[in-house]
Amino acid sequence: MLSTSKLNLKAFNMPNFYKHIIYRMYRYALETKNSTPEESVVMTLMFLHFMQLLTVTMMIPRLYEIINPGNKIGLILFLFFFYFLIRKLIYNKSKWASYLKEFENESPLEKRKGFWIVFVFIVGTIFLFFLPILVRLL
């Protein structure tokens, strides 16, 4: 069994576009004076990644059978596990602070580009989630 102390999560290098997504969401949460900006970003990312996981499972029925426990308690436990996994892999207070510094002097063109990256990530995730459902209905 692999314990979390054996995982070297600090060496995990996040892709630049994903850092930009975190930066945008985190900055927005800070600007709106959210009482828990880190949790808001982690929960939003968890929700989006869960939708991505469900999209893949709808396309691969056998995977859906493995993930779907068949009862509400099992699903709730899976969501808690998924939340803590996302939190452990993504949230790092010092790295998030460095993202704020890294992207703070963006040009207007970079800001527009960053907006579209986040927009496509969020809307694309939602669209791809509903696409298999629409295909089945047709």
Descriptive notes:
- The chain has 138 residues and is mostly helical.
- It has one domain.
- The protein is built from 6 helices and no strands.
- It has helices at residues 16-31, 37-59, 61-67, 72-90, 93-103, 108-137.
- Helix 1 (16-31) crosses helix 2 and helix 2 (37-59) runs parallel beside helix 6 (108-137).
- The model is unreliable at 1-11 (pLDDT under 50).
Which tags fit this structure?
138 residues, mainly alpha, disordered N terminus, globular
Write the layout of secondary structure elements.
Layout: H1 16-31, H2 37-59, H3 61-67, H4 72-90, H5 93-103, H6 108-137
Helix pairs in contact: 1-2, 1-5, 1-6, 2-3, 2-4, 2-6
Quick recap of the structure?
The protein contains six helices and no strands.
Tell how many strands the DSSP assignment holds: 0
The first-to-last residue Cα distance is 45 Å
Question: Count the helices. How many?
Answer: 6
Q: How many independent structural domains?
A: 1
User: Which regions have little confidence, pLDDT < 50, spanning 5+ residues?
Assistant: 1-11
What is the string of helix and strand elements?
Answer: HHHHHH
Instruction: Based on Cα principal axes, name the global outline.
Output: globular
- Biggest β-sheet description: none
Using only C-alpha atoms, the radius of gyration works out to: 17 Å
Q: By helix and strand content, what is the structural category?
A: mainly alpha
Nearest-integer average pLDDT: 82
The helix content, as a percent range, equals over 70%
Percent of residues in beta strands: under 5%
